[in-house]
Amino acid sequence: SGLALKWYKTADNALVSMPVSPTVTTQYYAKCEQTLNNVTCVSAASSNVSVTVLNPAAPVATGATICAGGSATLTATGCSGSGLVLKWYKTSDNAEVMMPVSPTVTTQYYAKCEQTLNNVTCASAASGNVSVMVLNPSAPVATGATICVGGTATLTATGCVGTGLALKWYQTADNAAVSMPVSPTVNTQYYAKCEQTLNNVTCVSA
Dihedral of the CA atoms 25, 31, 35, 41 (nearest 10)? Predict the structure, then answer.
């Protein structure tokens, strides 16, 4: 009869009310107070107990560049340690994705760091958005030429203009790369491909 449980913050012995909302891991202890006939007696303190605050930091993510049909395993730093797991999400719909990813068009992703302790899981803020850039150069449209024996021709092709794009020519018979102008002595066939290089990745058209 007359018993009341009182809680205190260990750091400064300040009386606190439940529930508590510490922003960092904090220790508390309890005492039992009994009041009877206007006399209050206080027990010894309980052992200290902690409210552990999980607060994983947002990871720092890195994007990637792939050729159409390829895949990429995105990476992020700042999510390593006990109970920490890196999770990836597609920016457009916030759907969780597993690595590697194989987008068919340039797609943005972000990462979060999740920490689980004592059956409680907390997620960090999202990293900045990063892109998996998909390079998919179109096949160029080539034009042939007619020359006299001993003459030269500079073949042309359209559809290979833009950032990082280069037109490459090949001899059909052996797929050997050739430079313009060409000087065949007999009727000869050639074809062109469009190569795109960005972020040290090179992709080739049909």
Answer: -140
Cβ density class 26-57: b for 16+ within 10 Å, e for less: bebbeeeeeeeeeeeeeeeeeeeeeeeebebe
Q: Which of 59, 54, 45 is nearest to 8 (CA)?
A: 45
Cα 192–197–199 angle (5° rounding)? 170
Residue 2: pLDDT band by 50, 70, 90 thresholds? Answer: confident
**CB distance 47 to 30 below 8 Å:** no
User: How does pLDDT run across 133-191, given as a tens digit for each residue?
Assistant: 999 999 999 999 999 999 999 999 999 999 999 999 999 999 999 999 999 999 999 99
Neighbouring C-alpha atoms within 13 Å toward the C-beta of 168: 19
Going by their DSSP bridges, the two strands 190-198 and 176-178 should be labelled as unpaired
In this prediction the pTM is 0.81
